[in-house]
Amino acid sequence: MKPKILLRAAAVLMLLHTIGHTFGALGWAKAPNTKVAAVISGMQNEHFDFMGRSVTLAQFYIGYGISMILILLYFSLQLWLLAISPTRPMLLLTALLLSGLAVCEYVYFFPFAALFTAIAAACTWLSFKQLPQP
């Protein structure tokens, strides 16, 4: 398969991952049971001082979720643009970062999210391998 097709497939996978993550990140406070509801309530209501302001763990959680949406969207766009004009250094860097992200998602979140990123990483690695060396 050509690098362009592989990179476009990776871009679409990461865009789907972005959409899924966005729905999850925006609906995180819906508790499936009373024990989880108590944890969420504590995250939202217990304030503490951090770097000169009063914050909650929920604010950090929301901020990390939004940051991740932007990172996933960036990967989608970067992969799409790399398909137009791929370079070996950018493919290598992107493949390494996607691989690292896939491991993090698997260890700290869940396999379904990691699978999307792992397949995108594999497509990027294959593109890197197929691109002729200068």
From TrEMBL:
<keyword id="KW-0812">Transmembrane</keyword>
<keyword id="KW-0472">Membrane</keyword>
<keyword id="KW-1133">Transmembrane helix</keyword>
<protein>
    <recommendedName>
        <fullName>DoxX-like protein</fullName>
    </recommendedName>
</protein>
<feature type="transmembrane region" description="Helical">
    <location>
        <begin position="95"/>
        <end position="128"/>
    </location>
</feature>
<dbReference type="InterPro" id="IPR058068">
    <property type="entry name" value="LIC_13387-like"/>
</dbReference>
<feature type="transmembrane region" description="Helical">
    <location>
        <begin position="61"/>
        <end position="83"/>
    </location>
</feature>
